[in-house]
Every structure is written in C-alpha cells, then in structure tokens.
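Researcher: Can you fold this with pyridoxal-5'-phosphate in place?
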Amino acid sequence: MTPSTTTSPLREAYDPEQFRQLGHQLIDLLADHLTRLSSDSPPPVIPYRDPETELAFWQADFAQGPGDPLEFFQRVLDHSIQLQHPHYLGHQVSVPALISGLAGMVSDILSNGMAVYEMGMAANAIERVVTDFTARKIGFPETANGVITSGGTLANLTALLAARRAKAPTAVWEEGHRERLAVLVSEEAHYCIDRAARILGMGSEGIIKIPVDDRFKIRTDLLDTYYQAATAKGLTVIAVIGCAGSTATGSYDDLVALADFCERHQLWYHVDGAHGGAVVFSDQHRHLCRGMERADTVVIDYHKMLLAPALNTALLFKNGRLAYDTFAQQAQYLWEAEQAPAWFESGKRTFECTKLMLSIKVYAILRTYGEAVFAENIDRLYGQARVFAALIAAHPDFELAVQPEANIVNFRHTARPRAEWDRHNGQLRQELIQSGDYYIVQTVIKGERFLRATVMNPQTEEGVFRGLLARLGG
Ligand SMILES: Cc1ncc(COP(=O)(O)O)c(C=O)c1O
C-alpha cells in the first residue's frame, strides 16, 4: 500500500474534499428519501420495532467497525419515525423546513459556542434579531428582549427563576430559601412547569393546580379562592402561569383575565406558549393569544409551530433588564463586567454556557421565505385540525373530546360497551403503531383515555383523516 496523506483517520476527518463528496451524496440520499415519503407508495410512517430488537440491530451494526457513512445514514433513516410522512399525526415537533436543516449543518460545522461574544459574533447578533422580531410580534415594547434556549422545558424553568428573582421577598439566589413560595397554574399545564417549580424548591404544596372548565381552560373564577387559601396557609405566591395552549388539548387560557389577576396581586405573569404562542404570526389566529402582551415572560418553541428542527425556543422578557438579573453572578474569566446588560453574550441569560447557534435555523427560514411562511403553516395546520374534528363529530362510532382551538384533536372510538373504551382505544393505538400505517399518540383526559392526533404536517390532507378513521374501525 502506498503511503498517502489521507490515510490517517484524523486527517480524513478534516478533509474538505471527502466532505464535499459525502455531502453531495448525503443531500441526494435525503432528497430521495423525502420524495419517497410524499409519493403514492411511501414507506411506513413508523417502522416500529421493540426496544430490545432495535438495540440488537445497532449493536450488530456497531460491531462491523468503521465503514461507509452513507450506508449508516440510510439505516438511520430506515429505522426512524418519519415526520415528513403525511400520516405523521404524533407529538408536537415541527416538520422542519428543509432550509433550517441546511442552516443546522452550517451551525454544526462552525460550532460557535456563543456564550461569549467572540465565540458567536454572528450567532449572538442573529439571536438578537430573531428574538427582537418575535417580541415585537407578541406586542412587547422596545424594552423587551429575549434569549434562545434548548427547548421549552429549559425556557419555562428560566422564566420561573426570573419570577423568583423578581418576586420572592428574600433574594433566594444569594441567601437560599426563607419563605415557602408557590405558583398558580392550570391543572392542564405541561409537566415541565410542575418539574420547574420542584427544582426551584417549592415542593408539592407550592404548585397550586387550578381546575379547568369543560374546554380545558383554567377556571379564572377560582383564582382568588386558591390564592387566598395559599396565603392563609403561609405560602407566598409569586407567579401565575397561563397556557397558550395546553399540551393535551391545545386549549388557550383566558390570558386577559390572568393578566388582570396578576396586576391586582402584583404577581409575575408567565405565559407558556411553547406550542400555541406561535399564533402571534397569524392574523387569523392571533386573537387566541390576546392578553399575552401583558405577560412578564413568554415562551414560544420555534420547533413546534414555526418550522425549525428541535430544539429551539424563545424566552422573551417584556422588561429586558430583568433577563440579566436571573443569573447575575461572578464569572470573572468569561466576562469583564458581570452586571453589564450585554445582549451579545447570551451566556449571561441562560443556563447553557456553550450553546448551539440555534437562531440561525429560524433566521434562515425568515430570510428565505419571509414571515408569511409561519402564518401559512399555522393557518393550514389549525384549519386541517378543524376539518378532522368535523369528520369525527359527524361519525357515529367516534367521540370528539373537545372542539380544537389549535391543531390538536382528541377523540376515541366508542363502538363498544362503555366499560371497554379505555382498554379498547389503547389497544387500537398499539396495533396502529405496530402496523406502521399512521402515527398518533394517546392521552388521559379527566381520567379517561383518548387518542390524540396533532396535525403537524402541512401535507396532511382530508383523505388521511378519513383513512385513519376507517383504519380505526369507523
Ligand atoms: C405547552 C408546553 N410547554 C412546554 C413543553 C415542553 O417543551 P420542550 O419539549 O420544547 O422542552 C411542551 C411540549 O410539548 C408543551 O406542549
């Protein structure tokens, strides 16, 4: 064998020509894959295998040692759930705009950590542009600002940290807990809110869950009662969290009533708009978020309704200055003036130190297609959910849990004795997943099992809904 300069694995790993070749081939592979998914005879939406079988497959694959990466990429595609498949009606993760995937490649190759300005000059500036733009859409004033985090869970936790900083009588960050703190939230809020409150040391007593009405919206008429009861128990309520919309049903809380309540009691007002806050980009649907502009903090996932790949979340502060207070601490080696509100050093406002250039995935979508693409996506997905709901409501063998406000449709098959509904619907979903024909999830509403479909794919047409109902026995 003739010695070559490219035989070292390390040299090869950095060889631009090998990258060029593989990159072209990979794009072809992905484009072919996407074309197949939207063809008349697509592969299964989920090639379901049980976890042990899947693990054994990859253990055997790994045992082969180094080989052709394209074969490996193809296998990953073949063994994954397909969000681009029109039969994907599952969890709330966007079908990414393809340009954002390319932006992700640029981000990964640059690998600019961005906690400090020098390590993410473009990244920090672009993040500012994207979050300023989103804040204006909410209706926040010029003094607002935001930061992008890796997901809604982290963003909600950060918002509650900010609430504690602003509203707890003792400076907990410096002195630890003195008071028993609490937050008020809908019983339908995402579990990450409960988890965040526990991480903040509030315990079970500090997460006060308010019942919902028959449309799964927080009962604002009960807020005062719960607030007074908490205060009488010696708890210090610091915040109210509104859902826009809730995870299970996509229901939007009355954000105006919550804002009034927070103003009256001088509480921090946080809106978890991880899923449905995106409607601020749609003239047709933005009314659902009326009152959100009065919140102190808002979370919106770009990776749910705004076409970005997971994870990618904006946490927006109405009063931008408060974003810097949350993590105010000494980090001498990173920043010279720790307390300066330097927008260009994102590490000052997030948990994350080294952080991906998340903003460029959103920016790439906006710079390529304009904001109209967001409105079109929201209107299409919310509209298709109404189409699906109407089919269910008109069908004698199915029951609709609630008329959807968002793109989340909950229903169940009822052509059985009532006592069997829970078990029967669970079984229906299991069979569906194993067949690979459609992907839907399930949820528990008021203690009963429902099938849950979220229309995430703009390519999902009415025929898909009809096919799904027929497949489920309707
Ligand atoms: C309302 C709501 N909040 C928060 C989250 C958690 O967001 P993430 O998955 O981005 O951490 C979700 C996820 O579905 C959600 O629906």
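Model: Folded with pyridoxal-5'-phosphate in place. The chain has a mean pLDDT of 94.
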